[in-house]
Design a protein that fits this description.
Layout: H1 3-28, H2 41-52, H3 62-65, H4 68-101, H5 106-116, H6 125-153, H7 158-173, H8 192-207, H9 209-217, H10 227-251, H11 263-276, H12 292-303, H13 317-332, E1 338-339, E2 342-343, H14 346-373, H15 378-390, H16 405-430
Antiparallel strand pairs: 1-2
Length: about 450
Amino acid sequence: MHSSHRAAIVRVIAGYTAALVTGTTLLMTPAATVADGGISLLKALFTATSALSVTGLVVLDTGQDFTLFGQIVIVCLVQAGGLGVLLLTALLTALLALLLAGKAGLRLRQSVASETKSDAIGGVKPLVLRITALTVGTELVVASVLFCRFFFHYDEPVTAALWDAIFHAISAFNNAGFGLRQDNLVDYVADPFICGPIGLAVILGGLGYPVLIELVRRYRTPLKWGLTTRIIVVLTPVLLIGGTVFIAAIEWNNAATMGHFDVWGKVQAAALQSTITRTAGFNSIDISQMHTATWFGMDFLMFIVGGPAGTAGGVKITTMAVLAATTWTEVSGGRSVTLFGRRICRYVHRQATTVIVLALGWVLLATMVILLCDPRFGLSRVLFEVISVFGTVGLSTGITADLSAPSQIVLILTMALGRLGPVTVASGLALRERPIRYELPKERPLIG
């Protein structure tokens, strides 16, 4: 791995740790919660990690158990976690482009910078400014819509409506899923002027900065879109619509979730929950009352989250797309892996496989550890919890607060790995420097 990339990763981990320690310390102060003397270290650490990793999983009620000061700390951690890691992934992409292009001529540098949308030639300052402007601008628009709805329709006081709007807008765009209501968005399940802007913000935040910028710049010329944008633009609607149909089909007559809604209410509830599996932990229906089959399907949807260089955590859509294309090529007997008219480099196959295998390995390990510590919850609930945490989704079947301390520590580690792990592993694999001085004889083992 290049020394500058290694130094960048060290700084990221150090910055993440410093923010986590600061947030945990602030949340432990008596001023942050309504509890006498403050909350315990574990609860503060869990909440801070959930906010900084933009997961949204909670062991305390954000609106009831935290004061305004505590809520401000949480939303600041959410913004830092979302915007900070978004900047990290974009800057690592820029660094990758610079390092790979450093040994080539200007034409290749221009080609690499164009393909990664990294502005590698012009420097990273404009990149940072555009990402920040995009984030803040989107949050302001969503907050304005939510404020009008809270103030004019629900008759909330100005200050309450303003804070509700700002908090939920930041939480939505950063794919965090923190809410100020005890039942999250259940009261607004049939309100498209609340669920709509929140769902749209979740989707936009999860698309990723490179995709958003290219869509803005080249919305009239889709044939010139890069491969990453093509993958995200095609597969995101497929996953959203497929998830909506799947959830609606199973939960349609479930009286404990959406069975008592009219047709439009059922479709809207299913659509929002499908959107939320893209890595934001809002819920407008009771997740704990869903069928086990729905949980299992949502496990798949939560494992494959948003686009690269976005506010989503976990395994990215592009990684799974490359793995699926590789599998199809082997099954169909093709000679090279292709996606949307582009041939995928062989080292990208290995990177995608490595990320998937490591992610699945950690999910299985964390699930087994929690089952050993808390066997009473069963495999379905524990697996749902772990995948939700690794994908930084934040949905839960209601067992989070009842888990033992060792299990909650496992979830804390999983949240951090889900947020920083895939991007650092992928970029580390791309920037490795290990010259090959010899090759061993080839032999083909039997596969199957």
